Amino acid sequence: MRYEYKYLVPIEQHLALRQAVLPFLYSDPYAARQTEGHYTVRSIYFDTPGFEMYHTKLEGVAHRMKVRLRGYNLGGPDSEVFMEIKRKYEHPILKNRSLTTFGIVQRLFRGESIEAFGDRISHPDNARRFFYQILSRNMRPVINVIYEREPYVGRTFDPENDFRLTFDLHLRSVAYPQVDALFEETDTCFAFPGYFILEIKFNRYCPAWLKPLLEDFQLRKEPASKYVGAINANRFINPNRYNDAFAKNNFWAHAASVRQGSE
Fold first, then answer.
1. Strands (DSSP E) along 131-252, which ranges?
2. How confident is the model over 205-226, as pLDDT tens digits?
3. Which end is more exposed in the chain, N or C (fewer Cβ atoms within 10 Å of the end residue's Cβ)?
4. What are the structural domains of the chain?
5. Can you give the pTM of this predicted structure?
6. Rounded to the nearest 5°, which phi and psi values hold at 73?
């Protein structure tokens, strides 16, 4: 279980807020190896014909989930990707994740079995859960949510708490993508113009230094969902129209045609 707090922050506060938190944090090691100290997150979210994941978040349902495929930067067939189910039980967050390569995920969506790849898929039970949700709920890829993540970890190392703070900038999206297009950006639409999202994550406790800092910047915790915000900003998606994703995304037909072409 993990706790996650979000704050919508005016973009003009970005540099000042970064300077304020740096005495307490280190740059995430992976981000520190990137040229600009951040990396790009790409997540294709799946939803039901009635946009259940969207509406349960909008309505504040205590127990809800999201199903997504996540990759990073500009990837290719050998790039690592995560098949994820993110569940929320009132406040704590629980994730079921399975790590593999983008090429293998593409083959799974074309009908190959998880068992065929052996230990090339981590936590295969989580991969099965991922596909069970998609198939049993008749889900479609609804949106690819993309942003630059600038992540930090606590200077005081506490693996049981695993405190992380991230600045998520330039939130944008692509409507109704194919899974094969996880790393592509065409016809992007920006969300939360003039703002970025501050995320705070921890397992047990929030550090004492953080609360007064948030008060200094007059920041208040709020449900700043990237998924909901991206959909609301994308006029091509109508979450109140049943089967909108089915009418505008020939996802399974595309997967079947690719599979037949390779046989």
1. 140-154, 164-175, 189-190, 195-202
2. 999 999 999 999 999 998 889 9
3. C
4. 3-257 (3.20.100.30)
5. 0.92
6. 55, -145
